[in-house]
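PROTEIN DESIGN WORKSHEET
SECTION A - STRUCTURE
LENGTH: 297
TOKENS:
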């Protein structure tokens, strides 16, 4: 169930200020123009199930991610993200089927990204941008129901100050774009629980499907996308001890589509696990469907 708790940071993706293609599941090195804004609204539905225990746990998470970016300078951009979650866990306990759920605003994340290197040529650009993010515990983290306190994955917030850092490399041409990212998320303890640290490598290919040729006055483009995310999570810690039923390695593949205009992007994709090596009885990811829009102004 740890994947749901980290959905907010894992889903932190940004867009360039001019409407260019960009990854769905992670960051891009393309800039936000100085003094410009980018707004992204992203709706997601996740299922985490395949419980190997008699409890038959089935967790479903839906959410809306609101992201606002601002170009401070030509090379430096700031982003803020605030998620809203609706989390539900169905399980069997004591011979009865029970449901535990909670909805609410999650943790606020503030991210800074700086273009450290760029190489431009006719019809192409190569950019490298390191980034650093801080997650503040703005969401509720001590919610409960008739059965007592909710487990950490069901809480809207984590209760901890966490840090995420890494770098993203982007190569863009008139026909396609390739992005790759390496990131590391460090976590802290809150309420006797510490989520496992996460090391992640991401890659994305976006290829222009329509129009096949670039003529003057073309108003919009359709891109096909294929992305991969390799996620290595350490074990969670409960009351200072490792949880043997948490952490592991998962490889996701995400096919998707983007419709790109000069001012906005509409997109949709389905993130699917192709390999999962999880510890103990940790719940496996089934899918993550995401759709949304990005607006530049």
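SECTION B - SEQUENCE
RESIDUE ASSIGNMENT:
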């Amino acid at each position: 169930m740890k994947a749901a708790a980290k959905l907010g940071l894992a889903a932190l993706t940004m867009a360039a200020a001019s409407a260019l293609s960009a990854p769905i599941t992670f960051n891009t090195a393309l800039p936000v123009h100085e003094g410009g804004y980018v707004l992204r609204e992203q709706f997601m539905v996740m299922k985490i199930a395949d419980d190997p225990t008699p409890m038959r746990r089935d967790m479903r998470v839906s959410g809306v991610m609101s992201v606002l970016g601002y170009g401070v300078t030509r090379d430096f951009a700031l982003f803020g993200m605030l998620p809203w979650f609706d989390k539900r866990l169905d399980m069997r306990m004591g011979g009865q089927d029970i449901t535990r759920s909670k909805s609410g605003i999650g943790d606020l994340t503030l991210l800074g990204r700086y273009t450290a290197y760029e190489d431009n040529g006719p019809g192409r650009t190569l950019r490298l941008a390191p980034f650093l993010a801080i997650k503040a515990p703005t969401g509720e983290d001590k919610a409960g129901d008739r059965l007592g306190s909710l487990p950490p994955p069901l809480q809207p917030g984590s209760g901890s100050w966490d840090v995420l850092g890494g770098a993203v490399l982007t190569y863009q041409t008139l026909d396609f774009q390739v992005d790759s990212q390496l990131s590391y998320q460090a976590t802290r303890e809150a309420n006797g629980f510490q989520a496992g640290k996460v090391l992640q490598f991401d890659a994305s290919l976006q290829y222009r499907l329509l129009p096949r040729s670039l003529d003057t006055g073309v108003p919009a483009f359709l891109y096909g996308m294929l992305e991969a995310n390799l996620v290595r999570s350490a074990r969670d810690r409960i009351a200072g001890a490792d949880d043997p039923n948490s952490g592991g390695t998962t490889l996701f593949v995400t096919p998707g589509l983007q419709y790109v205009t000069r001012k906005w992007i509409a997109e949709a994709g389905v993130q699917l696990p192709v390999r999962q090596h999880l510890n103990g009885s940790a719940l496996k990811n089934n899918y993550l469907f995401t759709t949304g829009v990005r607006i530049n102004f």
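SECTION C - NOTES
Residues 222 and 259 are 5 Å apart (CA to CA).
The chain has two helices and 19 strands.
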